[in-house]
Amino acid sequence: MKNNEVLFCREAVVNRFSETTAYNILHPSNAIKGQDAAFLSSLFVDINLTEITQQKTIFFLSSLETLYNLPLQTHIHTVTFLNATELSEVHLDELSEFRLQGYQLGIINPSPDTLPDVVLDIFSYALLTLDNLTIDDLIVRVKHPLIASKKLWVNKVENMEQFTQLKEKIPNGQFSGSFISKVTPVKGKRILAYKAILIDLLVALNDRESSPRVLAGYIERDPTLTYRIIKLTHKALYHSQFNVSNAQRAIEIIGVRDLIKWVGLVMLSSVLGKPDCLFSMAVSRACFCQSLSAVLFPNLEGAFLVGLFSYLPSFFDEELPILLKDLPLDENIKVALLEYKGNLGGILKIVEAYESGRWENIPFDQLASKDISKQSLKDLYVKSLKDAREMGTL
Question: Which residue intervals define the domain HDOD in the entry (predicted)?
Answer without folding.
Answer: 191-375
